[in-house]
Design brief:
Layout (H helix, E strand, L loop, with lengths): L1 E4 L2 E4 L4 E7 L19 H13 L4 E5 L12 H18 L3 E5 L3 H10 L3 E4 L8 H6 L5 E4 L17 H18 L7 E4 L8 H9 L11 E4 L4 H7 L7 H13 L2 E6 L2 H15 L4
Parallel strand pairs: 3-4, 3-10, 4-5, 5-6, 6-7, 7-8, 9-10
Antiparallel strand pairs: 1-2
Helix pairs in contact: 1-2, 2-3, 8-9
The structure holds the ligand Cn1c(SCC(=O)Nc2ccccc2)nc2c(=O)[nH]c(N)nc21.
The ligand Cn1c(SCC(=O)Nc2ccccc2)nc2c(=O)[nH]c(N)nc21 binds next to strand 7 and strand 9.
Pfam families: Pterin_bind
GO biological process, one term: folic acid biosynthetic process
Protein name: Dihydropteroate synthase
Length: 282
């Protein structure tokens, strides 16, 4: 299973790690803020990206719009100003697959031109123009399921059958992508843990994740440090490493090929052990 990510090829025959680089001023989740003094500090960004690559990340995920419940909406220009310089700097200085976490058509187009190798859209290309913008880039696209909108999605999530409904949504988005000229070989499916789901929904999706995607479509799982770990283990965001590592391994055992995480080195070690035990001959 290989993905053509611009000038890089991503080999997904084994699970890989996507390191999170938060280019938003409120990077509460990964601690590192790159906005010392109000302006984006590209030197800090590059150092963090370099560290994650050294630790074994195969992909660096760059996002400029926080999806935290209650986060202020970001203008298109603001998102461009946050994301494009970071993509350019990493692309020019470090050889890595850069995924751009955006739902905005202009950011998709500009990021691809700046060297991004993967489009990571938590809204599965539903925003106006996003589908055509993605089609025009030739890049792989991660389609993630979200029920509702970030501001209200966690108020009362409800499904009759969460696994069936999430799977059906992703397959419907795949059909739409194919009709827009995005070949299914460019697609990644993602259940969207924590995006309009209760803990029971999240656990059911993890248990049955393999059912969500056809065999030829890789799965991405984003579980790292998320609130479900906080609630289930009663842990603050900076005490969620054990829970995050456990879920990363469980997700890899259930078919996830890309793990989106804050703690790259630890997750790389966990996945190496999982591969040695579960796939001895590879
Ligand atoms: C951009 N993005 C996000 S941001 C949410 C987050 O990390 N929250 C969070 C992080 C740390 C603590 C609490 C919450 N989650 C996903 C995901 O699950 N899949 C894909 N594809 N992209 C994603």
């Amino acid at each position: 299973m290989k993905l053509n990510c611009g000038k890089h090829t991503l080999d997904l025959s084994r699970p890989v790690v996507m390191g999170i680089l938060n280019a938003t001023p409120d990077s509460f989740s990964d601690g590192g803020s790159y906005y010392a003094g109000g302006a984006l500090n590209l030197d800090l960004v590059l150092r963090r990206a370099e560290q994650m690559l050294r630790e074994g990340a195969a992909i660096i995920d760059v996002g400029g719009e926080s999806t935290r419940p209650g986060a202020a909406p970001v203008s298109e220009q603001e998102e461009l100003d946050r994301v494009v310089p970071v993509v350019e700097a990493i692309s020019a200085n470090l050889g890595a697959v850069i995924s751009v976490d955006t739902s905005t058509a202009a950011v998709i187009t500009a990021s691809a031109a700046a060297g991004a190798g993967l489009i990571n859209d938590v809204r599965a290309l539903e925003r106006p123009g996003a589908l055509d913008a993605a089609a025009g880039t030739d890049l792989p696209v991660c389609l993630m399921h979200m029920q509702g909108q970030p501001g209200s999605m966690q108020q009362a999530p409800h499904y009759d059958d969460v696994v069936a409904e999430v799977g059906a949504y992703l397959r419907e988005r795949m059909r739409t992508c194919e009709e827009a000229g995005i070949n299914r070989a460019r697609l990644i499916f993602d259940p969207g843990f924590g995006f309009g789901k209760t803990d029971e929904h999240n656990l059911a999706l993890l248990r049955h994740m393999a059912q969500l995607a056809p065999a030829d479509i890789p799965l991405l799982a984003g579980l790292s440090r998320k609130s479900m770990i906080g609630r289930l283990l009663q842990r603050e965001v900076d005490e969620r490493l054990p829970g995050s590592l456990a879920l990363a391994m469980l997700a890899a055992q259930r078919g996830a090929r890309i793990l989106r995480v804050h703690d790259v080195a630890a997750t790389v070690d966990v996945l190496k052990m999982q591969q040695l035990v579960d796939n001895p001959n590879q």
